[in-house]
Amino acid sequence: MPSRKFADGEVVMGRWPGSVLYYEVQVTSYDDVAHLYTVKYKDGTELALKESELRSQSSFKPRKSQSSSSSPSRRSSSRSRSRSRSPGRPAKGRRRSASQSREHKDDKKKTIQETSLALLVLVVFKPSENNTKRYNGEPESTEKNDTSCIILEQKVKPDMEIKRVLEQYSLRPRKDDKKKEEIYSERKTFVAVKSIEKAPSKTKELEFGGRIGTFMMIFLLPATVFYLLLMCKQDDPSLLNFPPLPPLESLWDGRVFGVFLLWFFLQAIFYLLPIGKVVEGLPLSNGRKLQYRINGFYAFILTAAAIGILLYFQFELHYLYDHFMQFAVSAAVFSLALSIYLYVRSLKAPEEELAPGGNSGYFIYDFFTGHELNPRIGSFDLKYFCELRPGLMGWVVINLAMLLAEMKIHNLSMPSLSMILVNSFQLLYVVDALWNEEAVLTTMDITHDGFGFMLAFGDLVWVPFVYSLQAFYLVGHPTTITWPVAAAITVLNCIGYYIFRSANSQKNNFRRNPADPKLANLKFIPTATGKGLLVTGWWGFVRHPNYLGDIIMALAWSLPCGFNHILPYFYVIYFICLLVHREARDEHHCKQKYGLAWERYCQRVPYRIFPYIY
């Protein structure tokens, strides 16, 4: 095993990936397996670099004002001065000997070659405009400017840049063979540096328990869904009363699977309708922005109209309740088939389109977390479609089916108060998500996580069949609550919804237009990425106030089921675990992304989700 060259705590010069600039860094740790140094820049940014990307400080000599570390204004002024007088022309009244002239010409020739190559890299990649500020801890101008720079870099032709540099710094016409040789060498340098910049980094830190954890979750998640549904069918759904397993042949029904496919493709048709506005998502790693059609609320109205027509023609919607387990099995089979298709197609996807969290090189892990970030068939975005359409709207339809089943089984003229509360609360939640559909484009599911088994199973199976657990429970275990209790639960749900919606709106408005006069009262900590971290309003109360509102609402959804069994409270228990885990993922990513600014934010806002508790 090769010995390491730099020790922990040593201050060296580290190259920023994708550029030729070196900055002062401190070695924090060393990975003996991957042979990578973890280094920390002055602004708090932590990166993993190879030993070849690190140099001792003694190897760097002080440069003149035309070095790459000088400010853009100095470089531009230097370039403008060089156009007026050649850098090799002697001052007036100065004489040189023949030997000095020859030496000067040799040095001049070498300087021209080095200068043209350095300026080529600087002009094409423009590291000085953004990277230098980032290392110095200064905020970038705006996210929009960063994107425009990236797009400009992609459009620059290397041949034009080479020609411009050679014409600008040539002192006299060169021989054709030497010019071709220099252009060829510079082209090779351009391609090499560009390939380094575009090479995506492998996922080094595995989540969800790594390969073993993700392998177990592929089986554990479906087993949990089926266990919960079987428990709800029990007369005594206590944890110690394990339900008997039904015959395997009873779990599959071709007609049920056909109904599920009809539902899925009906939502796909609604998604493709040319109604609603088209917006752009956040910039990808290559600077490109994908377009999304925002028509989820219109699709919900069309779905409600379709359900109303079925009920008008006396379609028995409680068919869902009678075949609930078979629908869950059909959805699980479809999500597994979809996950296999997604992974196979991701093997041919360009590397820049792979998910940053699902590019580990391990089959099971990438299959579970999702290998490709935004898989699309033409303009049809599979992940974005599944995120809000078939599962979320299916949740509302299942709740309605449970309400009708309760009335039929118990011979009620109207649904119970508990069932009305559960349906109303969850309907409000779904309508709010579809009305504010554009906000989902900034979530971790869209920007970071790939589309694999985790999201496919979660969107198509977990959301509609686990989130509707309270309504399914109330059909077989009716619970009577008084009006004062119902009023108190309603107030609790309204508080949670107000925190959830106002916190998300505050964040989304600030992201869209930080200079909005309506947000002038909000204070924030600037970061090296150009974004600000809010330290007033809800985001100065706790770091994730939207999670706090979500948990309060989850509790309000479970309370109408009473306290006879813990089963209807599975959702709120699971949701707390989910959000605490997601908060930990957010903390890790934000610390890497924002560096010292995130540490200052954590000092200003010490509580993560629950004020004065956690």
SSE order and pairing:
Blueprint: E1 11-15, E2 22-31, E3 36-41, E4 46-49, E5 54-55, H1 72-84, H2 98-125, H3 127-135, H4 143-155, H5 158-169, H6 176-198, H7 210-232, H8 254-272, E6 277-280, E7 291-294, H9 296-312, H10 319-322, H11 324-346, H12 363-369, E8 376-377, E9 380-381, H13 382-388, H14 390-409, H15 417-435, H16 444-447, H17 453-466, H18 469-476, H19 483-512, E10 524-526, E11 532-534, H20 545-558, H21 570-594, H22 596-604
Antiparallel strand pairs: 1-2, 1-5, 2-3, 3-4, 6-7, 8-9, 10-11
Give your account of this protein's structure.
It is a multi-pass membrane protein. GO terms for molecular function: Delta14-sterol reductase activity; DNA binding. It is found in: Cytoplasm; Endoplasmic reticulum membrane; Nucleus inner membrane. Residues 52-111 are annotated as: Disordered. Belongs to the ERG4/ERG24 family. With 614 residues, the protein is an alpha+beta fold. The chain folds into 3 domains: 10-58, SH3 type barrels (Roll); 208-480, no CATH class; 481-613, no CATH class. 56% of the residues lie in helices and 7% in strands. It has helices spanning 72-84, 98-125, 127-135, 143-155, 158-169, 176-198, 210-232, 254-272, 296-312, 319-322, 324-346, 363-369, 382-388, 390-409, 417-435, 444-447, 453-466, 469-476, 483-512, 545-558, 570-594, 596-604; strands at 11-15, 22-31, 36-41, 46-49, 54-55, 277-280, 291-294, 376-377, 380-381, 524-526, 532-534. The chain has a 5-stranded antiparallel sheet with strand order 4-3-2-1-5, with no helix packed on it. Strands 6-7 form a two-stranded antiparallel ribbon. It has a two-stranded antiparallel sheet with strand order 8-9. A hairpin with a 4-residue loop joins strand 3 (36-41) and strand 4. Helix 15 (417-435) runs parallel beside helix 19. It starts with 10 loop residues before the first strand and ends in a 10-residue tail after the last helix. The model is unreliable at 63-105 and 108-199 (pLDDT under 50).
